[in-house]
Amino acid sequence: MSRHIRQREFVENLIRTIETAEEGGRRLDSVVSYLLGEGDADTDAIIDLIVEEGYPLEVSSEVLDADVPPFSTSLDAKLPGENVVLSMYASRKGQWMAIHRSSDGKDSVAWAHTECLARRAAALKGKWSQTKVLAEIARGVAGDEGPPNEEQEEPAGEDDRENPWKILF
Description:
Layout lengths: L2 H18 L5 H10 L5 H13 L3 H6 L21 E7 L4 E7 L5 E6 L2 H16 L1 H14 L4 H4 L16
Antiparallel strand pairs: 1-2, 2-3
């Protein structure tokens, strides 16, 4: 498996972990900081090795002990480029929902147990889908494994919809 595919799986696993976590914490914050390239060099080198070898997120988060922003526990610790346009609690579902709107107007929706986690998951989904890293990974996948299967990347027709969210005040 190529390095690029492992990196993509790492990010997808991080987003799933954030969406299913009961609460935020230092481990999640450290992994998010690593993903954003804000960690210290020693920690990043260790995580690069762990990601390269294909170990799961749980192993990666165990080796982290850096002083990082409280991304998963504070509403103020926003990700760079985070643009959450709506966040609300759904009592029927017992979870928070957040919508991140990218600069191109595409919405990314995430559900989680806390508002902070929902906001960070939505922002990561939006950021990850637009980032240059993803473009580099797509090129790497095409170079290492053949062309990427677009049907697996995004469900068909999802981008063809008009904005389904209308908020009336």
